[in-house]
Amino acid sequence: MTEIAALDLDTARQALDSQPFSRLVGARLTAFGDGGATLELDVREELHQQHGFLHGGVLSYAADNALTFAGGAALGPHVLTGGFSVQYLRPAVGRTLRARAEVVHAGRRQAVVRCDLFMIGDDGTETLCAVAQGTVLPIPAR
């Protein structure tokens, strides 16, 4: 069994829980595998900016982590974000942030990953508020 085959949602959740910042913002993985990952966090006042919208840094955090977990689903557990860009489409308003990432292309040296960031309203409606794209790189196991 390879390391990639051994990855599952529970293992990915343990990795997320080992990140103090992820625990601070209350992030959770709701899906993982087959070159994809979905990260969610509930919005609370401490995560807002001065106009009452979810802070762009929170959106960037979610994109970064979702991209990297999706890349890890394709490349294995020892990965880091090589870089990413995010485009904010509209103010982020809602009760939950959902970052849904999917590998666009994976090779031996990197994975290119796209992430769509949605706000979930009280009625459950998803509204796309940002998109991100990045590269995920394998690193040696420590």
UniProtKB/TrEMBL annotation:
EC number: 3.1.2.20
Segment forming the signal sequence: none
One family name in Pfam for this protein: 4HBT
Catalysed reaction equations from the record: a fatty acyl-CoA + H2O = a fatty acid + CoA + H(+); a medium-chain fatty acyl-CoA + H2O = a medium-chain fatty acid + CoA + H(+); a long-chain fatty acyl-CoA + H2O = a long-chain fatty acid + CoA + H(+)
Residue stretches in coiled coil: none
Residue ranges annotated for the Thioesterase domain, each copy included: 51-118
Annotated keywords: Hydrolase
UniProt similarity note: Belongs to the YigI thioesterase family.
PANTHER family in the record: 1,4-DIHYDROXY-2-NAPHTHOYL-COA THIOESTERASE 1, MEDIUM_LONG-CHAIN ACYL-COA THIOESTERASE YIGI
Descriptive protein name: Medium/long-chain acyl-CoA thioesterase YigI
